[in-house]
Structure formats: structure tokens, C-alpha cells
From TrEMBL:
Pfam families: TrkA_C, TrkA_N
Family matches, as InterPro entries: K_uptake_TrkA (IPR006036), NAD(P)-bd_dom_sf (IPR036291), RCK_C (IPR006037), RCK_C_sf (IPR036721), RCK_N (IPR003148), Trk_Ktr_HKT_K-transport (IPR050721)
SUPFAM superfamilies registered for this protein in UniProt: NAD(P)-binding Rossmann-fold domains, TrkA C-terminal domain-like
Gene that encodes the chain: trkA
UniProt entry keywords in alphabetical sequence: Ion transport, NAD, Potassium, Potassium transport, Transport
UniProt keyword annotation of Ion transport present: yes
Organism: Phocaeicola intestinalis
Domain RCK N-terminal span(s) in chain numbering: 1-121, 229-347
Lineage: Bacteria, Pseudomonadati, Bacteroidota, Bacteroidia, Bacteroidales
Residues spanning the signal sequence: none
UniProt domain RCK C-terminal: residue ranges: 141-223, 366-446
Name of the protein: Trk system potassium uptake protein TrkA
Amino acid sequence: MKIIIAGAGAVGTHLAKLLAGEKQDIILMDEDEDRLGKLGNNFDLMTVNISPTSISGLKEAGTANADLFIAVTPNESQNMTACMLAAGLGAKKTVARIDNYEYLLPKYQEFFAKRGVHSLIYPEMLAAKDIVDAVKMSWIRQWWEFAGGALVLIGTKMRETAEILNIPLYELGGQNIPFHIVAIKRGNETIIPRGDDSILLNDIVYFTTTKKYIPYIRKIAGKENYADVRNVMIMGGSRIAVRTVQYMPEYMRTKIIESDYARCNRLTELVDDKVMIINGDGRDLDLLTEEGIKNTEAFVALTGSAETNILACLAAKRMGVSKTVAQVENVDYISMAESMDIGCVINKKFIAASHIYQMMLDADVSNVKCLTFANADVAEFTVKAGARITRSQVKDAGLPKGATIGGLIRNGEGILVTGNTTIQENDHVVVFCLNMMIKKLEKFFN
């Protein structure tokens, strides 16, 4: 597959690195030569120093033969124009990064498609949805729903109160246990566990289960004393913050702390009257105390500085907040945030890359999620008629090392998978895999 990525910024560079490892024909273009130079020579891709809106430049890059053209520059208008030109020159499919939520409305989908913009991606909106999922439950690090919630993935950190520490997995229960442990993140290592593996203190454990068994997972993880989230404090009135409060459940009360007075005035126009806007510095401990940090269950740091966000979350933790979320766009800081026990990290690059990566898959994949801490991914495949995965029980399917099936949805019902399970046509299968292996798994489900 020939893929052209326009824009060597954070999203474009991260995506190019990921796709280069898949043995695809990748071309990364940018009009800023310095950005391209930062990639070095360690990746199997071609860089071209041209403007993505130059017709001659697009022709030179071979856009006419492109299977996928992705425009992710910081400029929305440039992305839209580049996609229109690329489609006109022969690119089969185009994706544009946008900043305007209105463009995503269903009534405009055909309008843009006719003009050559086939798909739109709004990273801030995707990040906001992940933040809301993260704060719904104070004891969970990561939470994702599949098939409307028929099956859920839960990531939570093991503390001293966990009931399942130091017990081999084969001893935790037989075939009828209501969960499947799909992965364990231990230090810098991600483990696809086997029966003789054990869960250790400070592991982040990823479970798949159905909603009715979430209280049971909470009990065995020793998290029953964690307060339910009712009050949320957000530091930084960014576009992500605006989207986040719009997706918050009705029962949550939210405050936004923003240091820029003009932005505070603008926020009062953008968000609901129920959201309190506070002009001040979210790092000011006296201000946080005055605004009720002691009675706040979740603190979300969304400034443009990763360092500020991490430190603010640490301060909130020390002041008794049980759930913190930090926006960390510098990938190098993610492992540091984990070592400092920041509850949840949001990274727009990973989120956007997961959604774009999904578009290049041949299989019917309705969901691809990146596990930020675990350097791994979760994908939801729809099984085609006669697919290889249906010809034997799961234990004999020959899935590659580093991949495991976490569960499936059949006729709308979530089902946990064992080695003796036989997967059927039209099942929605949730697969956990390491290091962007999803492309290698397509052949099992097609």
C-alpha cells in the first residue's frame, strides 16, 4: 500500500514511524525541511520537501498512485485543500485533520466526499471522549467499550489491597471466571500472560469483562474504597477542555481553571452555564484549596505544557484527589508520567494515529485503540464468512505470539473467550496485540 502523509508535525511523524514498521510504501512530505530532518535515517520511508498544496509537488510525490493520502498539518484549510487536490490527481482515499466540529456533522459527509475529502479526523474531540471515559470511574486507568458496551476493557493498577496479587493465573479460577486478563504492564515491559504468570504489586492489569461483572473486578482489584467521581476540576481552557465538558455526564459538576482572562470570557460563551469558569493559575495550591480541591474526585490537566500537566496532577494527588488525567504530547514524557504514578495520560498523537491506522486495514475493523502506557493496541474485528479463525478452536488457530483474544460479541451479547471457544461468522472479536501487529492479524478474520 502506498501512503502519503502531508505534515511532518507531531501526528504526521508519529504516524509515519508506525506505518514504516509495517513494510508499507510511506512518503512523508512537509515544506519545512528541518522537520523532515529530525526523523533521521532509522525509518523505512521517503521524505520530500514540498508543500502539500503544490500540484506539481503532489505529482512529483506520485499522488496519482496513492492508496491513502493523509493530511495532518496544523492548518485545517491546508489539509482540506491538499486532500481535494490529491483526490483530483488520483489518490484512492483521503483523510484530513480538522479543527472544526461542524464539519463532522453527518449532513456534510457527502458534501466533502464529492470534493475529494473522504474522511475527517478531529484529534481534540477524540481526546475529549477518552478523557470522559477515564474520569467516569476513579479506580480505572483506561476504559473502553466495544459494541455499545457489550464487552469492556478495563486497565487498573494493582495496589497492596488487591486480592489477586502473587497468585498464578491458573489458580485464580477455572473456565467460569467472569473476566480475561489480556495483558500486564510491568515497568517498561508488556506481558501477554500465561497460566503460570502472576500479578505483582504495581502492575497495570488489563481485563476484558462484561458490565455486570465490573463490581467484581473492582473488588478483586481492591478498589472498593475509591470514591465515585462527582466533581471534576480541569486546568486549562483549551479546545479539548471545551469538548470534554460537553461530553461529561449530567451528574458531574465541572470547574475550568484558566489563566488567560480573555479566554475565560470566551469559555463562558462556549460551555454550559453549569460549568464554573475560574480565572487563575491551576498550579496555585491556595486557589485549588479555595475552589474545593479537597472535595474533588478527578483533576484533569490540559495546558499546552506536558511538564506543567504532570506536576499539577502530582500536586492534586497529594491534596487527596483520587483520579488525575494529564495531557502529555511529548512521547518521551509518557514513561516518566507513569513512573511518577500519574493516573491517566492522554496523547493526541496516539489517539489520532489509532484512528488513521484503522483506515488502512483490509479487514472489517470497527475499533482500534492504543494503550498509551502498554505500547500495545486493541482492535475489534468483524469475522467474515469462511475466515481462518472459524476453522478451529481458538487454542489451535495459530495466532502469532504477542496477540490474544480478549472476548467476542455475538448477537449483541458479550462473551469471554477460552482456548476451547469456536469463533463464528459475524462475531465481533476483540483482539489485544503488541506493537502495531494488527495488520498481521487481518488474515485470520477475512
